[in-house]
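Continuing the series of single-chain predictions for the mutant panel. This is the parent chain; the variants come on the following pages.
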Amino acid sequence: MEPEARNLEPIRLARKTIRMVNTRHIIDNQQATVAERLRRHLGDAHAFDFVSAYFSIYGYELLMNELDSIDEVRFLFGDPTSVEDLDPGAKDPKSFAVTEKGLTPNHTMLQRYLAKRCADWVRRESVAIRSVSQTNFLHGKMYLAGSGDELSSAVVGSSNFTKNGLGGSDRSNLEINLAVSDADTLAELQDWFDRLWKDTQRTEDVKQKVLDALARVGSDHAPEVVYYKTLYELFRKEIEARIAGDEGLVATGFYDSQVWNALYEFQKDGAKGAIAKLRQHNGCILADSVGLGKTYTALAVIKYFEQLNEPVLVLCPRKLHENWSLYQASNGHIQNPFPQDRFSYTLLAHTDLSRISGRSGSVDLANFNWSNYKLDSLAKRPV
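Parent structure:
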């Protein structure tokens, strides 16, 4: 390569890089964000039409200065109730942090201020909001900016009008959006939006609904509401696991079992809690006081796992062996209160865990397969 050619090579590479930046069409919130793209084009825009399934005040915050200066905004909304969520459709961090210094709110003042400012913007005559009447019907996302009688830019893809969707946080969603500047394509997008906007059979005015939701977000809350909300956020995972577990209980027919219907309400709560913890943590301690029916609660838990065809091993003190053998269907005991549940669990004494030979009732410990009950370390002991 000639010296002059070598000297020109960095310039060619630089031009190539500039050309790639200027012609980028894919916006994924990683190399470029939707918010950045919109800021560039909304600064000179007089009209802004956009479609989004979700909207949040933190998405509004990213573009509020640009939105305040636009003469006409039309927003076609998928779910007006999402205004009350911090950032709907995404996995947000909790609205507080539990530290060694106590409970620290993350959005205490900002949320109220943003809700009020967003409401002031929505209240303007220049802002119109409609929603598709059919729930979960609108999934498209489009942002269309225009100056005067000309359309200048559009973004079409997967980004909702939320902080994560627009690429405004460290946890921004990985999106796939296409930046559009071709005049014919822009005209088609505008025509599609106008037809849907004017379709009163499919869409309705929801501006007041949005204002009502923003008022709730920006209002003061009673202390007990804050307390209950804090408890919910602290135990959200456990609550969601319990709800999912309840659906599973119905599916297995667990609620029709004899033992379940023999329980008091507090025992039912204990059984469901134990099942949820066993599913989530693979362990649980039931530590009710004497006389509160721990045996029946434990039997209900056993019944649940037996209905899932899980093998169950009960280990108890030897002096309680007779008590627990009462419920085994194989014994056919006349005093078994739950014969229809046909319990099939295996029963051993807890001291049998240390034995590798001999018999425990009818069980030959030398040939007992502990791995059937996921006790593989016991199964591998030398004989």
